[in-house]
Please model this.
Amino acid sequence: MCGIIGYTGNRDCVQIIQSGLGRLAYRGYDSAGIAVCSNGDIDLRRSHGKLENLIARLTREPLRGHTGIGHTRWATHGRPSESNAHPHRYGKFAIVHNGIIENFLELRQELIARGHEFSSETDTEIVAHLISEYYTPDTGFAGAVRAALRRVRGSYAIVAICADFPDEIVAARLQSPLLIALGDGENFAASDIAAVLAHSRRIIFLEDGDIAHIKADTVEIQDITGQPVQRPVKTVQWDISAAEKQGYPHYMLKEIFEQPQKITDTFRGRILEDEGQINLDEKTANLEFEKCSRIQIVACGTSYHAGLLGKYIIEKLARIPVDVDVASEYRYRNPIITPQDGFIAISQSGETADTYACLKIARERGSKILSICNVMDSTIPRASDATFYTRADPEIGVASTKAFTTQLASLMLLAIHFARRRQTITAGDARQLLNALRSVPHHMETILETSDSVRSVAQKLLRASSFLYLGRNVHYPIALEGALKLKEISYIHAEAYPSGEMKHGPIALIDEKLPVVVIAPKNATYEKTLSNLQEVKARGGRIISIVSEGDDMLPRVSEHAFVIPDCEEIVQPFLSVLYLQLLAYHIADLLGNDVDQPRNLAKSVTVE
Ligand code: F6R
Model:
């Protein structure tokens, strides 16, 4: 995730910003940069790759100043490179930005028509240009930022400096975290407490729509219309490790809780709900996967589970046959794939060796290649014809959570797009589905509030030596994912079956010691699952269920029932997997395991 720090005060800001960026490095980044107000102008240094590159550059070409901004970038618009690195400077302004400007293409066209030239592929640079456009003696610095931000749709945490005001910074927030840290004769703006904790514990957390005008001794906050607003100053007690996890005990829990925001980011700018359309980037749309006679999905682990769910949704909505394979199997079985087929590689890291090897096979055999990936410009996207980026931001916990749900969100958007192009669903159907998808973050928030009660259930289950997970249809991949999460971090054996397969073997395992986790919200297969569960109950099995609100049958046979709201089927997997992530997390944590770095596992599997 991108990281921001800004400083104004009496000290040399470069050292402060540089060490703040070091504190932000844990979030993952691909480039970094610093800009300072210096002698009536703005001076900046940026580097691709690690912070060491930026530091080496600063050693060769030093910067000096008392007001400045710095950034670690994780690419979302435009590949990782020095020209795309922040800060972006235009005219008298330089800015750093976290978030996504939704209407950036529209604004870019407008600015180009007025003679602007751009030096990067980023959405951020647009904002620097806009601020410049609105800057007059009347608006002043903060007024120009406010006027520019009125034109922007999307999410942002922005910190700007202006050559004409070398003792001031302006910071603005909308749906992306930003705070101000108060010092003595100096003040800071940052995306993250970790960046400023060495200097101050007195923090103002900005709210959506706030624009803060920051000088060494004063902070004035206004809303987007210019009305003053008051925000409390809080004293934080976190140490640096807690600050990096934003107060959560583990990255995994932080990432579980980030999912509503990350799914919102995945949808951002891609849903045209009124028209019942998906706004895909040109390269992805031009691949015309909807014309393929078959789609082949290949992935590993959690990404494979996302692919399996993708099959259900694409086949159901777009009526295109979809095959899904584990990459390590696919690559060695001389697969059948033709130029008429579409090939989708799903990979969080974009570096998984087996998935990449399959992509090369598909390339040799002439099929079109689309990847769904979280890391811009990693190996798999570079080898693909187009990439749909999931925008989950870096995932630090080894067990994948937000990467999975953003992959699901991506696959659902693609399925709806293919379906609309093939006219297998109407615009009205699409509107209804998109409306339902938009409700996912809200429903997830509600479930996250029950995390403590999931922990109480975890407490009762943690002595079990084995678990069985069951689900039908779209809930079968979720059962697989739930079992994988539990195995990875709790080291308890777990396996998943389609509910209907239970009587073909796994039923022999059932006794009073085996927790059976069954995912059975109300849908077309609910009744069938209910009868499978009577078979479990008759053999004394412990049933832990995920049910729809209002279900009064399944909770009666369950030791515990997790409830999800009554919602469209397309929404259910996001909610049921959330309970399973929380269950696995709490069991592992109660067992005292290293949740973020489970034994024997690596985040990126770049070898066979
Ligand atoms: C499980 C997990 C792994 C990965 C798998 C594929 O929590 O993280 O199963 O999903 O190694 O990795 P990517 O998606 O990077 O190709």
